[in-house]
Specification:
Pfam families: DUF305 (PF03713)
CATH superfamily of one domain: Ferritin, core subunit, four-helix bundle
Shape: globular
Protein name: DUF305 domain-containing protein
Strand content: under 5%
CATH topology of one domain: Ferritin
Structural class: mainly alpha
Number of strands: 0
Organism: Georgenia subflava
Radius of gyration: 15 Å
Oligomer: single chain
Distance between the termini: 38 Å
Order of helices and strands: HHHHH
InterPro entries: DUF305_CopM-like (IPR005183), Ferritin-like (IPR012347)
Number of helices: 5
Largest sheet: none
Length: 148
């Protein structure tokens, strides 16, 4: 379940990051978005290969509806994307950083749950990597927001 849910979660982050690569005014925001997309794509491929090897569905049963890991400031992925698409300039940059911070916090929570309850050594290792990487990016985004 961790892999299924994290794939969907990462796909949402990539969708937001790709929009930021297109729309961000600040080069540091654009660069961060490129890094996020580049890091999460291979993780999706890794989790997808696990699920295929285990004979499991790639998509979680019932989707991500109601899963706290997908909410950002109380918004769904679709609502967050719609808000971001309607913004430009520094307003876009600021809101992207706020929403991606919330999105990453959801991923950290999901990964912490996997560390507490999971059994597969590969999944546990990836969960720790996600925690480490995304907490570092959260700190970077919080600093970028303070600098604005």
């Amino acid at each position: 379940m961790f892999a299924q849910m994290m794939i969907v979660h990462h796909q949402g982050a990539i969708e937001m990051a790709d929009l930021a690569v297109e729309k961000a005014e600040n080069e540091d925001v654009r660069s961060l978005a490129e890094d996020i997309s580049a890091a999460q794509g291979p993780e999706i491929e890794q989790m997808t290969s696990w699920l295929q090897a285990w004979g499991e569905d790639i998509e979680p049963m019932g989707g991500m509806e109601g899963h706290g890991g997908m909410e950002m400031d109380g918004m769904s992925q679709g609502e967050a994307m719609a808000e971001l698409e309607g913004l430009s300039g520094t307003d876009f940059d600021r809101r992207f950083l706020e929403l991606m911070t919330a999105h990453h916090q959801g991923a950290v929570t999901m990964a912490e749950e996997e560390l507490a309850d999971g059994e597969n050594p590969q999944a546990l290792e990836l969960a720790q990597t996600i925690i480490d990487d995304q907490q570092a990016e959260i700190a970077q985004m919080e600093q970028m927001l303070q600098d604005r």
